[in-house]
Write a structure and sequence with these properties.
Blueprint (H helix, E strand, L loop, with lengths): L6 H9 L1 H4 L10 H6 L2 E4 L1 H5 L6 H13 L8 H23 L2 H29 L3 H10 L2 H25 L4 H6 L5 H8 L9 H15 L16 H4 L1 H14 L6 E5 L8 E2 L9 E2 L1 H11 L2 E5 L1 H12 L5 H16 L9 H6 L6 H8 L5 H6 L6 H13 L17 E3 L9 E2 L14 E3 L1 H9 L2 H20 L2
Parallel strand pairs: 1-2, 2-5
Antiparallel strand pairs: 3-4, 6-8, 7-8
Helix pairs in contact: 5-16, 5-17, 7-8, 7-9, 16-17, 19-21
């Protein structure tokens, strides 16, 4: 026994070490070693921000990531969310810029309404207290809608000009994502090479989801419990699935003594709220303790901006002050928009059955009629198809969405010289005359299975819907 602390006491203190330490990392306090030696795991939002940055900031971020490239590792859930959500990120930005002039015009109309109300107020006073019709006429001649439009015309033109400049400055277009010519995707792939996780077993995923929703979330055990109300169980458990993937990977990496997890998510299911203005929020010590107990490794959780400041400081990355500010602004603005990952993707569809009534409503809206397809609506092996049918009938305006219905971002067809994912087949593999599309069009494997089991009439309907969706998405870019 030394300093009054025996071995039993030491074990007890070690069990709760992160709650005792002053460092929010729960580690040895030396941040440098995490940047120079640790395994680095980037959350989905860090990768998706590459589509939100200006080209200058993005190039600096990518150059910084190349400095730590050998130590980057990609959880399957992060990779899947990144691949499936990037289109929604670019679409969200594109839509905001396309619609930017609408609120501008509304604000200017409201400004004239306020001026008009002020004019009417003064005219009313003149009428009430002076019976001054001449004064009222002078005001009408001086202050009128046409004069107001002339007065603010140069302001309106300048505001519209800035909006047009923003539109033209976007170097990542939605059509790039849809057509398969996304310039960021190969950059990200090159960062990871073969350092990514394989798809986990579906049974294991279901087990983790059940554990999260039935035990951890009701007891507010981080991470991710604030996502419990997301549309599907797999989306609700997304953060916890990433957490379990990290732990499982490090458990089989005995030499991995430190892990640096970078995320823009600073909600209370990751960070302990600040107890005073002088004490900033810190990652929950229970996360650090759990990670240490289950892997034997030290964990540092860090926000995006702080991470790139650290790469600049400890790895001599060239990141300008303006780029750092942009990284911070992007994270803040991202926190203000809705969670785009709440959209159902093919990965989500595998583990999340749709609400019972939606597949049949979509089947009826698509004017399908065969018994085999109707049976597929309740077959768990065809859940991906069920979600696609729900999404495509809503996307093409064949039916109105039901209350609380989640969005679906899935396509049954893709174009390109090579398949977008393993297992996709060329349209030319279908019988001659059934697929009126170029040979460079690919069919998702789950769609090919459904087509194979469908009679000719429903096959034609499904392929027509898939082609209409492909055309619709291409034209919307």
């Amino acid at each position: 026994m030394a300093n009054g602390v025996n071995s039993e006491t030491a074990t007890f203190l070690q069990q709760h070490q992160a709650w005792i330490e002053s460092q929010s990392s729960g580690a040895d306090g030396d941040r440098r070693v995490f940047f120079t030696d640790a395994l680095i795991v980037l959350d989905t939002n860090v990768l998706l921000d590459l589509y939100r940055y200006t080209s200058g900031a993005r190039n600096q971020v990518l150059a910084a990531l190349r400095l730590v490239k050998p130590r980057l590792w990609l959880p399957h859930r992060v990779g899947s969310e990144f691949i499936r959500t990037r289109r929604a990120v670019v679409a969200d930005r594109t839509e905001k810029l396309q619609k930017a002039k609408t609120p501008l015009d509304r604000h200017l109309r409201e400004a004239w309404k306020s001026v008009q109300e002020a004019l009417d107020e003064v005219k009313g006073l003149l009428d009430q207290f002076a019976a001054d019709e001449v004064g009222q006429a002078e005001l009408d001649e001086l202050i009128n809608e046409e004069g107001f439009k002339q007065l603010i015309g140069s302001w309106r033109d300048k505001l519209n000009e800035r909006i047009d400049e923003l539109k033209n400055s976007q170097d990542i277009k939605l059509k790039d994502i849809v057509s398969g010519s996304d310039p960021i995707l190969p950059e990200v792939a090159a960062l990871y090479e073969s350092r990514f996780a394989a798809a986990p077993d579906t049974t294991e995923v279901r087990s983790h989801i059940e554990h999260a929703l039935s035990y951890r979330y009701p007891n507010k055990i981080p991470p991710g419990y604030l996502d419990a109300d997301k549309p599907t169980p797999i989306q609700a458990a997304g953060d916890y699935l990433i957490w379990e993937e990290m732990i499982s990977y490090v458990q089989v990496q005995p030499a991995q003594g430190r892990v640096l997890f970078v995320s823009g998510d600073t909600k209370a299911d990751w960070y302990e709220p600040a107890r005073s203005a002088s004490e900033p929020p810190r990652p929950w010590p229970s996360l650090i303790d759990e990670f240490r107990a289950r892997t034997g490794a030290e964990l540092l959780i860090m926000e995006t901006r702080a991470f790139f400041e650290g790469v600049s400081e400890f790895m001599d990355a060239h990141i300008t002050a303006s780029a750092v500010e942009e990284i911070g602004r992007t994270a803040e603005s991202r926190a203000e928009v809705s969670d785009l990952s709440e959209t159902i993707t093919a990965d989500d569809a595998v583990a999340s059955p749709p609400p019972r009534e939606l597949p049949l409503l979509a089947y009826q809206a698509a004017r399908l009629s065969s018994a085999p397809l109707k049976a597929a609506l309740s077959d768990a092996s065809h859940q991906v198809f069920q979600w696609w049918l729900i999404g495509v009938t809503q996307e093409l305006g064949l039916r109105d969405p039901e209350f609380g219905e989640p969005a679906v971002d899935m396509a049954a067809l893709a174009t390109g010289e090579s398949p977008p994912l393993p297992g996709w087949i060329q349209g030319s593999a279908l019988p001659r005359g059934e697929f009126p599309a170029p040979s460079s069009t690919w069919i998702a494997p789950w769609m090919a299975q459904v087509i194979a089991m469908s009679p000719r009439s429903d096959r034609s309907t499904l392929l027509r819907l898939a082609l209409l969706q492909l055309t619709h998405r291409a034209s919307s870019t």
